[in-house]
Structures are given as C-alpha cells and as structure tokens.
C-alpha cells in the first residue's frame, strides 16, 4: 500500500515537473518571439548610426558583397550621396585579449579615413576597453598617409614641416592602437589622392605622410587586434573597391 502510494506521488511529481517545464519553455518561446523584432530593429538602428558616424557625408548605404580573401571583414557597405558612391564602411572582427574586437571604419573615395568606431568588445576595463573612447577613435580622422604604432608619441618637428601626423594612443592598450594604425597605413599609403588640405584632428606635422599612433599601454594584444582589422579593411579598399568609387 505504501509502495503504491509512493509510486503515485512520484508519478504526480513527474507530471507536475513536466507541466512546469513545458510552460516555462512556452513562455520563453513567446518572450523570444516578442522581443526578436525590437532587438533586431535596435541593432539595425545602431548599425545605421555607426555608418553615419564614420562616413558622415553619405546619405544612404547599400550592402555590398565581401570580396574573397579578407577573413577579418564581416560586413561591407557602400556609402552614397546624391546617387554617387563616395566611400565605404568596412566592419571587421579581430581577436583581442578578451575576445573579438568588432569595429567599423569609414573610408572616402580618395582613401581618406573619415571615422572609426568600435562596435563591441570584451576587453579589460581601463586597459584595452579604452580603445572605444571617442577621443581615441577621433585621432584617426583625416589620416591620409601611413599609420605607424609607436610606444611614445614623437615630438612635432619645427615649423610643422615633417611629413607625419601623430595620433596619441589610449593609455594602457598597445595592441588596440597598433591595430587601428596598421590598417589605416595599408590603405592610405596607396591612395592616389592624399587630400593634403584636410586638417587632422590629431597633433599633426603634415598631411599625406606617416600618422604615428602611440600604443595603448598595458593592452598590446587589443591594439594589435584593431591594427590587423584596419589594415585588412584598407587593403581590401585599395585592391578591390577603389575602382567602384564615383569620379
């Protein structure tokens, strides 16, 4: 009798647990369905905002197929203004210290960097995470020559005659800075139009030469990750996309 009672209680408990599990699964499914749309719209809005930030002269963006041979590139779009292609936005994912560092770089038709924005990362706060600060990202605007990572920012030459543009790196993250600089160097150094009249927001010794970016101290891996990504983005622009720009 007691054994039968125990079996019945066990069976009832199993049934109750099964019902609770099923209801929980159903509820999670409903929540996922309800939130999927808003999350996707929010993500699309963030992407559009980043596109406008790094290529501000464009009034619309068109998705473009990613050419083969550039494994770090995860998204590509062409920026247009009044129907003319005036540049591109390249999103890359490069392995940092704590995980992938995903960022977008905007390049105009003449090979000049218009902006760089870190979209996501899992780097150490106060170190590699400093690469996402606005003041650091702005250092790369208007770079039109080679970008070089240095441990200490070089002193501007007298009279501003030196052919280098210096971008100060984020304190504590060498790898991040290196990554950003290296990519820009690859693309810009091969550009036909140096846009030498464009003012550089970073301490500048002259346009069209070398942009020196001080590495972020204490985060070499992060800095190099960004460098690899930027270099690949600019290399792809030079090799595959420059001919698609409107003249």
UniProtKB/TrEMBL annotation:
Cellular component GO terms, alphabetically? plasma membrane
User: Where does this protein come from, organism-wise?
Assistant: Jonquetella anthropi DSM 22815
What's the chief localization of this chain? Answer: membrane
Gene designation per UniProt:
rnfG
What does the UniProt entry say about where the protein is found?
Answer: Cell membrane
Query: Residue spans with biased composition (Low complexity)?
Result: 164-176
- In terms of superkingdom, the source organism counts as Bacteria
Q: In the UniProt record, does the keyword Transmembrane occur?
A: yes
Segment Disordered: which positions? 153-176, 189-211
Membrane-topology descriptor: Single-pass membrane protein
Keywords linked to the UniProt accession:
Cell membrane, Electron transport, Flavoprotein, FMN, Membrane, Phosphoprotein, Translocase, Transmembrane, Transmembrane helix, Transport, Ubiquinone
Q: Which GO terms describe its molecular function?
A: electron transfer activity; FMN binding
Which cofactors are named for this entry?
A: FMN
Q: Which residues does this entry mark as bearing FMN phosphoryl threonine?
A: 220
Q: What does this protein do?
A: Part of a membrane-bound complex that couples electron transfer with translocation of ions across the membrane.
Is Protease given among the entry's keywords? no
Q: How does it assemble?
A: The complex is composed of six subunits: RnfA, RnfB, RnfC, RnfD, RnfE and RnfG.
Family indicated by similarity: Belongs to the RnfG family.
Record protein name field: Ion-translocating oxidoreductase complex subunit G
- Give all residue intervals belonging to the FMN-binding domain: 96-237
E.C. no: 7.-.-.-
- Provide the taxonomic classification: Bacteria, Thermotogati, Synergistota, Synergistia, Synergistales
InterPro entries given in the database record: FMN-bd, Ion_transpt_RnfG/RsxG
GO biological process terms on file? electron transport chain
One Pfam family from the record? FMN_bind
